[in-house]
Write a structure and sequence with these properties.
The complex is a heterodimer of chains A (268) and B (298).
Chain A (H helix, E strand, L loop, with lengths): L7 H9 L13 E8 L2 E8 L17 H17 L7 E8 L6 H5 L2 H17 L4 E10 H6 L6 E6 L4 E3 L3 H7 L4 H10 L7 H5 L6 E4 L8 H20 L15 H13 L1
Parallel strand pairs in A: 2-3, 3-4, 4-5, 4-6, 5-7
Antiparallel strand pairs in A: 1-2
Chain B lengths: L18 H8 L6 E3 L9 H5 L10 E8 L2 E8 L7 E2 L1 H19 L5 E6 L3 E2 L4 H18 L5 E5 L8 H8 L2 E4 L10 H8 L9 H8 L1 H6 L5 E2 L4 H14 L10 H9 L9 H8 L19
Parallel strand pairs in B: 3-5, 4-6, 5-7, 7-8, 8-9
Antiparallel strand pairs in B: 1-2, 2-3
């Protein structure tokens, strides 16, 4: 990814905020913009590539040490600013291809940085901020856990370039000692292993899948659809303001998650 | 506190215990009560489909009881089953128990939680269901720690990696031994992704010098560094529970960590010494210090 081709995350953040200025005080790889959603103030956050990052393993959009802590900062600052008043919506615009893999990252505790981000989003939700995750590209593994997976509602674009997974195909094939072709064959039969967003939708984790004509260069109609979905999510959160993640339970391919909880409650 | 039998060395290894025995050792004698025990055969529906042998507890033990006379739930991941990986059932056991512990607190029951991490993270055969469960575990830890400290223990020998290392990062306090490792990415994955010059997964001293329990303690990412001894680990857990909630959770200290990281020139490759200098931790308030001589095993 170079500067001439902005990432999906950058494109959607700019489009949804009508090109609002990004807030200062954040690294170039974390874009934070305040704009309206359904006539109310909202904060939009995206992780984008920064080819100039001083961390060599975090130059192509990876969520690294600085990104994790800066995400935490952007969410905590919104929580603090709204402590006494209306809690603004927080929209995580998700296009994160992976966490950063490197010596510096492990050395300084990238796990702690990503915990900073995940914890901040969870607190925002638990303290009454509507938190919406909008998946416009990849939502991979630790990067997604840090940026978006704590959302009250998850919305994904219905597009081949949209993917949620625990590990990229090539790496998963190496780790499981399979060829990429074998992995794809197996994954097609096992919904939680599948790489397509339609299979992911059968797990019950997505609140809504939104059709768009172009996920890479959204048309006015695409933008309108996505804005409509964000507003609908906001309304849905208001009617069901549970501050936890229980709205994700009940998916046809996620029945054991409910059964385990029922048994635990009965035996508690 | 229960009297624990000591081996001939005077050390009663915790690392050698399986997950269930670890939970028993942490709970007060006679208070252990397992939820969804192995006789219920709540196994992974996804492993069976893929022809992989299942385990009757799916590699996670959840038990209620008391620690130091106060109610507690202890969650343990069995490192010997599928590398301590989390699938749908094991993940839901952990998330569900933490959710109930938080509910207890909202109803006036001061339930605490201790999590024994021995895990490589998401079970790849259940990929997205493992990842989703881990997000729910994160949420539940953050919820529960509003009321009670959540304690994580990383004893070894698997260590704590992947999405569960983020769960460890959300805990109020962490206990680690010299055997323990704590990091986001497993060494082999880093080597595959970034090359052997970046990360040599077979160089054990190198790996431990960055991610081992002692380094994590000396850089402030772990709160208690103890030897592999059951009664020492239990004492550390009891001591940390007694401390109550920290003034500021480690995962909320973004300003502190961003300021420290800004003093590091990332153009220079990291060394264990540089990390210690940048994080410059003084453990004056640590409950459980073991100097390097005292931490020796044999």
């Amino acid at each position: 990814m170079n500067e001439q081709t902005p990432s999906r995350g950058a494109i959607w953040l700019a489009a949804l905020t009508d090109n609002a200025d990004v807030l200062r005080g954040y690294p170039p790889s974390v874009r934070v913009a305040d704009a309206m959603l359904a006539g109310q103030p909202a904060r939009y956050i995206a992780v984008v590539p920064d080819a100039e990052s001083s961390y060599p393993r975090a130059r192509t959009g990876e969520t690294g040490l600085i990104e994790g802590w800066a995400l935490a900062q952007s969410v905590h600052e919104a929580i603090a600013a709204d402590r006494e008043g209306a809690k603004r919506a927080i929209v995580a615009v998700i296009d994160v291809s992976s966490q950063a893999y490197g010596r510096r990252e492990e050395a300084f505790g990238i796990h702690q940085a990503l915990a900073g981000a995940a914890g901040a989003y969870a607190q925002a939700r638990q303290q009454g901020h509507p938190v919406i995750g909008l998946i416009v590209g990849k939502a991979m593994s630790g990067a997604f856990l840090a940026h978006g997976y704590q959302a009250s509602r998850l919305i994904a674009l219905n597009d081949d370039g949209v993917m949620v997974h625990a590990m990229g195909k090539a790496a998963a094939a190496r780790v499981t000692l399979r060829s990429v072709e074998d992995l794809e064959r197996l994954a097609a039969d096992v919904p939680p292993m599948a790489y397509d967003i339609a299979s992911y939708a059968t797990l019950g984790l997505l609140w809504k899948l939104v059709d768009v004509a172009s996920a890479e260069h959204p048309l006015a109609a695409d933008l309108e659809h996505v804005r409509g979905a964000l507003v609908a999510a906001l309304d849905n959160i208001k009617t069901d303001p549970a501050a936890d993640l229980r709205s994700r339970l009940g998916g046809v391919n996620r029945q054991a998650s409910s059964r385990v909880r029922e048994k635990l409650r009965a035996q508690w | 506190m229960s009297a624990l039998p000591l081996g001939l060395t005077g050390h009663d290894s915790f690392v050698e215990l399986d997950a269930r025995a670890r939970v028993r050792a942490l709970l007060d004698a006679g208070t252990f009560r397992e939820l969804i025990d192995p006789f219920e055969r709540m196994t992974s529906p996804w492993l069976a489909r893929q022809g992989v042998v299942t385990q009757s507890d799916d590699g996670v033990v959840v038990a209620k009881g008391c620690i130091d006379g106060q109610p507690a739930v202890v969650l343990a991941i069995e490192g010997a089953f599928q590398g301590g990986s989390l699938g749908e059932v094991g993940g839901a056991k952990m998330a569900g128990a933490l959710e109930l512990a938080a509910d207890d607190n909202r109803q006036g029951v001061p339930m605490r939680a201790v999590i024994l991490f021995e895990t490589g993270g998401v079970r790849l055969q259940e990929a997205n269901l493992g990842l989703a469960a881990i997000a729910e575990i994160h949420s539940a830890i953050v919820d529960l720690r509003q009321y009670q400290p959540v304690i994580g223990v990383i004893a070894g020998s698997v260590g704590c990696f992947g999405g569960m290392s983020i769960a460890a990062g959300l805990c109020s306090y962490l206990v680690a031994t010299r055997e323990a490792r704590l990091g986001l990415n497993g060494p082999q994955v880093i080597e595959q992704e970034a090359g052997i010059a970046e990360y040599d997964s077979r160089d054990r001293p190198f790996i431990w010098s960055f991610t081992g329990g002692e380094q994590r303690f000396r850089t402030g990412l772990v709160d208690a560094y103890v030897q592999d001894d059951t009664s020492d680990i239990r004492s550390a857990v009891v001591g940390l529970l007694a401390r109550g909630r920290p003034g500021v959770e480690r995962s909320d200290q973004y300003a502190h960590y961003l300021a420290r990281l800004s003093s590091y020139d990332a153009g220079v490759q990291a060394t264990p010494d540089i990390v210690r200098q940048v994080y410059n931790v003084t453990h004056t308030d640590s409950v459980n210090r073991v100097n390097s001589a005292g931490a020796g095993h044999e």
